[in-house]
Amino acid sequence: MKNILRTFCLLAVLLFCQCQKEKDTTFLITSEQIGKLKKNSLTRDIELIYEEDSIVRDTVRGNFGSNASKIQIFEKGGKKLLTLTPNRDSIPSIENILINDPRFTTDNGINTKSTFKDIKEKYAIKKIITSLNNVLILLKDSDIYFTIDKKELPENLRYKTNTNIEEVQIPDVAKIKYMMISWDS
C-alpha cells in the first residue's frame, strides 16, 4: 500500500511540474519575433497574422500601383500596436518595425516606457549617432535600436549637430522617444 501511495504522489508531482503555464508571448520581443510577427514573415501574410486586429496601409502608394510604404497595426478598439515598413524585394518581407505600444517588451524587460539607464543595464551599446533633433542608440548583437530626443540631454548638447555624444553624457532618466527593430537581412 505504501508503494502505491508513493507512486501516486510521485505521479502527482510530475504532473504538476509538467502543467506549468506557458509564457504569454503576445507582446514579447525576441531576436526572431515581435509578438505574432516573425522575422521571416512576408508582407502578404500580414492579414493572416493580424486577422483579429485592424490593418491600415499607406493608400498613397497603393493608388500608384506599388506596395505600401507603411503598414500600421491597430488593436481592436483603436490602440496602435506597430508600424511596419516592408522592404522592396520581389517577395517583400518586413524590414523595419516601430513599436507603438508599451506592452511590447524585450526578453530583457525593455519597452517604450524604459529609460536610458534601463537600456545600458540590459544591453551593450554599439554606437551612438547624433542627428539634428535626436540621438540614435544602436545595440551590440541586437536588431533593436532606440531614439532619444535631444530635449532629454543637458542643454549644452541639445543644439550641436556635429558633436559626438558619448554614453556617459546621456542622463540615466532620458526617456525613449522611439523603439525600433531593423530586420534588414
Key terms:
185 residues; two-stranded parallel sheet; 5 helices; eight-stranded antiparallel beta sheet; 28% strand; alpha+beta
Report on this structure.
It is a single chain. The termini are far apart. A hairpin with a 7-residue loop joins strand 6 (80-86) and strand 7 (94-99). This protein has helices spanning 2-18, 46-49, 59-63, 116-122, 155-158, and strands at residues 28-29, 33-34, 37-38, 54-57, 71-74, 80-86, 94-99, 105-106, 125-130, 134-139, 144-149, 178-182. The strands form three sheets. An eight-stranded antiparallel sheet has the order 4-5-6-7-12-11-10-9, with helices on one face. Strands 1-8 form a two-stranded parallel ribbon. A two-stranded antiparallel sheet has the order 2-3. With 185 residues, the chain is an alpha+beta fold.
Mean pLDDT: 85
Percent range for helical residues? Answer: 10-25%
**Which structural class matches the secondary elements?**
alpha+beta
* Chain oligomer state: single chain
The H/E string reads HEEEHEHEEEEHEEEHE
Tell me about the biggest sheet?
8 strands, antiparallel
Number of distinct beta strands = 12
Number of helices: 5
Radius of gyration, in angstroms, nearest whole number: 22 Å
User: Could you say which overall geometry the principal axes of the C-alpha atoms support?
Assistant: globular
Query: Strand-residue fraction?
Result: 25-35%
* Span between termini: 63 Å
* Low-pLDDT runs: none
The neighbouring-strand order within the major sheet is 4-5-6-7-12-11-10-9
